[in-house]
């Protein structure tokens, strides 16, 4: 049997993180896969060493456009650890509310992408329409739709007022009803079930060995979430459920995220009801003491880790960032083996990378070196055709 | 972190590590040497409550490079530290113990030049294919100016 090599990516102008996978395929089956990163490696860790601690809050926020609040919070927590300081209770609640709103917008965005990946464009349009609602709320609080600039060393920079609380209530009620409706669709609609049930299997054992994180791990039935395991911000005071599903496939990854939207809404409601009065920020000393800190945050895509080392100067000696997508890549490679070419887009989308699809695909016949070039759209069309014939 | 847990960790690591320090709440630092890295890692993986390897961090200490394995357990995060010299930065791989470490080792190899003996694939993960061999961008001696000079020249 002939083995083909298919480079998948890396150029993709629309999404944040271009990546390249080289797939080796035998007829329709993927037999091996090799990822290659670095196409938009921006050298942020190096850059952080030449900026002050406060400047780095904004730099950390720009690591990812979608999980910006998670990165900013993770970084500020690390600095707060170095100061051995506590932030005001009200600031903790505001951080929690912002983090959950970010999760909601991320999961709606992801659901849309995944729907598009399986050719269900109507659902894509619906979820992105609803995502606008939560973006409007985020804009009302912070003044921005992305990179909110809310988290800072010692607390937060924006307060949530009483009038805002009323408006947020209305909006999240609407979003909760929508999420319930999408859950009904995703458990009953044949278009979705045919493309996701049993596709992209990641067994619990593999998920653990390959150090998967976030919804990808929880869809393999493992109950792990930084918010519950190492409560930061106000999570220690809030009752919430860690969502898990046992399907180990793309369908479970969809259900985990939809349920997380509903759970996030409950967390936001609880926070708005119980938010304590008081200041939102404490003044921090000028000089950061020598030392090192490791901070963890449950970003929408999973565990986010920042390591920070201070040598007593005004700039960090080292900032190390491990975003959740890198942690999930080994698991993704495992899921991709032994699947059909037609399932590649939906399985890659399943881990919620910053790269849900690739711009173009080149098929290479290893023996004759013959090439076919496919655009991302053509690959989707190919996948849809293939499923129609099946 | 429970005192009993800490004591049991200390007993299990005895003879393999140089020190075990509680850094702050839920944070533990374990220091070992290259020769004992693998045994220490095995002992930590065997701990009750071990969950996963979060990542591998590297810090430049001038003539030494410190490699930190962030090991997540249920009730704490352990930083396992080991130093290697810049002259000969080699460590044994841990991918046979923790398959999920495969990309972290490649990342450290790219950016700091630490070689992991036994890792089947240390080809560039992040750096471009035409990147010069001896330039490790996150080492302190490679300032931004020096790197761009080298790339131009």
Descriptive notes:
The complex is a heterodimer of chains A (390) and B (153). Chain A has 390 residues and is α+β, with helices and mostly antiparallel strands. Chain A folds into 2 domains: 95 residues, no CATH class; 279 residues, Orthogonal Bundle (Cytochrome-c3 Hydrogenase, chain B). Chain A has a 5-stranded antiparallel sheet with strand order 3-2-1-9-10. In chain A, strands 6-7-8 form a 3-stranded antiparallel sheet. A two-stranded antiparallel sheet of chain A has the order 4-5. The longest helix of chain A is centred in the N-terminal third of the chain and has 29 residues. Chain A is globular and about 65 Å long. About 5% of the residues of chain A have low confidence. Chain B has one domain: NADH:ubiquinone oxidoreductase Nqo5 subunit (Beta Polymerase, domain 2, 2-Layer Sandwich). Helix content of chain B is 26%, strand content 33%. In chain B, helix 3 links the parallel strand 6 and strand 7. Chain B has a 5-stranded mixed sheet. In chain B, strands 6-7 form a two-stranded parallel sheet. Chain B is an alpha/beta fold and 153 residues long. The interface between A and B is large, with 36 and 36 residues.
Number of helices of chain B: 4
User: N-to-C terminal Cα separation of chain A, in Å?
Assistant: 22 Å
Count of DSSP strands of chain B: 7
Name the chain pair with the biggest interface and residue counts per chain.
Answer: A-B, 36 and 36 residues
CATH class of chain B: Alpha Beta
What's the quick description here?
By secondary structure, chain A is of the alpha+beta class. Chain A has helices spanning 44-48, 53-61, 68-83, 89-117, 121-142, 162-188, 190-196, 204-209, 214-218, 226-229, 250-274, 324-336, 344-350, 376-389; strands at residues 3-8, 20-26, 29-36, 151-152, 155-156, 291-299, 302-310, 318-322, 360-365, 371-375. Chain B has one domain (3-152): 2-Layer Sandwich (Beta Polymerase, domain 2).
